[in-house]
């Protein structure tokens, strides 16, 4: 039975102490130590108009941020866990519970407010959407996306055909030479996934990437994810689809309101989670 | 169920596990995620991403006019129209052209060179704050963004320079070997622009309001930089205190503008340039380029916090 984190104040402490003694061969790849992540949102001055709030903010810099009209969103609260090589870890929780935020922090993309995250090498997020430009052709986006992920020009040239074939963009005519804004949303999503999945990663994090495209493309991408898992040391998967979590993961972290509620084997955590969500 | 959900977060009063986690991480050689690399490592990472930087700049440039019917023709049309507006106001209406030979080439060179600095800085203010999605999704040295925006403006300037050559020839300015001086001048100006872009990128990442303020700063800067009037001619006829004269003449924008005019226009003579003009041009480029880079790098790990 997995322990319920919310009732245990120092969960990872004991786990970290037990690990070297009991299972000396387990190599950690990600260690998160009491991680807090806070978003600050400007311009949410309540009621009395945000111009006064903004002035307040400038004049009274040192005063509490709340009085100055800055809203603090505490997205992740004191989360600790250790991930080991070869694990596939699912992240579950209701919408807005901090799953994606935690992943971004592990990838080093979002600064933490307090606490530390230690990683083996450079974890990467499977996602390249932000680097792509709708006004460019699919072909140029493949190059741009590849470069943005840190692939070399040669690697991109080598894999270009593979990416296009995998996306299936050219199945219905020569669409890869058209600007991406002319694609249907499904086609664009397929191309984005194909570009993102073209690179090999050490620690791979997948944020609900499985839910794109039509049925045949979903099958193909699931196969590709399994392939990526084999070459990656550790895989994190965020999903609301409990079936895909069961299929891929052997350990699950359950986040609720930014807190780690449960950490344990997939079946145990999912059982509790399904009870919680009322399935 | 709800009492479990509402459990307060664990208090920090219990013995801190920091030591254990750090020790565990150290034993297996794990490093802190998202930590700022050393300066030499940062330079190396940036160099490794050079293809991304140029590809991103070119992509932005082509995407800019891809929806317009005339397409890439706007690359040349936009600076020309700009020059026409300034000619109409300052040349025809206000008559600033008195005492300036070859006024049209003088004005157009000024406008193009100034626009290069202006748009690099404007793009710099939004380099991080406008690309938060990219910063939060992918790993790369963040300096790639302001540098890439500065390169995009450099590419834009090359289109303007092609238009400028046509204008110069139309107004009977002879082709000469001194035109080659444009290359070192623009290189230095690019270094300066990229440096300032990195400074404002860091400021804009922390305080997005900079982007609202910057147009006013830039407009003031433009009016004192001799873009559409001749600093040398004005200074000669006025009773300005010496320090004001020196300040006007050593302003980096004025230095690069005057050097380009000197290189391109035969009636713009060396005595119209301030003293030690090349030292000034190199000094500003190094100060802004190196200083701006270090200033930007110092906050590397904080970009992306919204």
3D structure, described in words:
The complex is a heterodimer of chains A (279) and B (306). Chain A is an alpha/beta fold and 279 residues long. Chain A has 9 helices and 9 strands. Chain A has helices at residues 11-22, 50-59, 99-106, 138-148, 153-167, 185-196, 215-231, 242-248, 266-277; strands spanning 28-41, 71-84, 88-92, 114-119, 124-126, 203-207, 234-238, 251-256, 259-265. The longest helix of chain A is centred in the C-terminal third of the chain and has 17 residues, at 215-231. Chain A is globular, with a radius of gyration of 21 Å. In chain B, α6 (103-125) packs parallel to α9 (182-206) and α6 packs antiparallel against α13. The two termini of chain B are 33 Å apart. Chain B has 306 residues and is an all-alpha fold. Mean pLDDT of chain B is 85; it is low at 1-17. At the A-B interface, α1, β1, β2, α3 and β4 of A face α2, β1, α4 and α7 of B. β4 (114-119) of chain A pairs antiparallel with β1 of chain B, so a sheet runs across the interface.
């Amino acid at each position: 039975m997995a322990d319920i984190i919310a009732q245990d104040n120092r969960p990872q402490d004991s786990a970290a102490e037990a690990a070297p003694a009991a299972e000396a061969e387990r190599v950690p790849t990600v260690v998160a130590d009491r991680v807090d992540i806070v978003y600050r949102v400007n311009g949410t001055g309540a009621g009395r108009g945000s111009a006064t709030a903004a002035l307040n903010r400038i004049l009274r810099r040192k005063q509490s941020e709340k009085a100055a009209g800055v809203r603090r969103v505490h997205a992740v609260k004191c989360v600790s866990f250790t991930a080991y090589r070869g694990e596939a870890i699912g992240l579950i929780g209701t919408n807005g519970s901090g799953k994606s935020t935690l992943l971004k922090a592990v990838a080093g993309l979002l600064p933490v407010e307090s606490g530390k995250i230690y990683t083996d090498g450079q974890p990467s997020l499977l996602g390249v959407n932000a680097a792509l430009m709708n006004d460019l052709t699919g072909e140029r986006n493949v190059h741009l996306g590849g470069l943005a992920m840190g692939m070399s020009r040669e690697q991109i040239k080598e894999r270009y055909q593979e990416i296009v074939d995998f996306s299936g963009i050219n199945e219905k005519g020569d669409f890869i030479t058209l600007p991406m804004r002319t694609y249907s949303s499904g086609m664009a999503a397929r191309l984005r996934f194909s570009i993102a999945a073209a690179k090999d990663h050490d620690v791979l994090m997948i944020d609900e990437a499985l839910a794109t495209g039509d049925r045949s493309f979903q099958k193909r991408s699931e196969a590709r994810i399994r392939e990526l898992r084999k070459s990656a040391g550790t895989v994190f998967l965020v999903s609301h689809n409990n079936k895909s979590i069961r299929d891929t993961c052997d350990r699950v972290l359950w986040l609720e309101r930014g807190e780690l509620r449960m950490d344990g084997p997939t079946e145990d955590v999912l059982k509790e989670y399904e009870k919680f969500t009322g399935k | 169920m709800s009492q479990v959900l509402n459990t307060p977060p664990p208090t920090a009063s219990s013995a801190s596990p920091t030591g254990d986690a750090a020790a565990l991480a150290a034993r297996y050689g794990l490093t802190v995620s998202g930590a700022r690399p050393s300066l030499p490592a940062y330079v190396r990472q940036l160099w490794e991403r050079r293809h991304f930087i140029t590809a991103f700049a070119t992509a932005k440039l082509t995407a800019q006019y891809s929806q317009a019917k005339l397409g890439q023709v706007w690359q040349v049309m936009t600076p020309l129209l700009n020059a026409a507006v300034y000619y109409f106001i300052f040349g025809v209406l206000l008559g600033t052209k008195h005492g300036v030979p070859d006024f049209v080439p003088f004005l157009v060179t000024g406008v193009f060179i100034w626009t290069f600095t202006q748009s690099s800085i404007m793009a710099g203010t939004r380099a991080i704050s406008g690309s938060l999605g990219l910063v939060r999704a992918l790993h790369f040295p963040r300096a790639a963004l302001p540098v890439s925006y500065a390169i995009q403006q450099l590419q834009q300037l090359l289109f303007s320079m092609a238009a400028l050559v046509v204008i110069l020839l139309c107004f009977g300015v002879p082709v000469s070997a001194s035109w080659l001086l444009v290359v070192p001048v623009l290189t230095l100006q690019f270094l300066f622009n990229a440096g300032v872009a990195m400074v404002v990128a860091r400021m804009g990442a922390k305080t997005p309001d900079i982007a609202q303020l910057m147009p006013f700063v830039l407009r003031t800067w433009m009016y004192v930089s001799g873009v559409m009037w001749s600093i040398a001619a004005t200074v000669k006829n006025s009773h300005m205190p010496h320090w004001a004269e020196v300040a006007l003449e050593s302003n980096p924008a004025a230095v690069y503008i005057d050097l380009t005019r000197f290189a391109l226009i035969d009636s713009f003579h060396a005595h119209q340039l301030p003293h030690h003009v090349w030292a000034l041009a190199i000094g500003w480029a190094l100060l802004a380029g190196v200083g701006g880079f270090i200033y930007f790098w110092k906050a590397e790990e904080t970009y992306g916090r919204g």
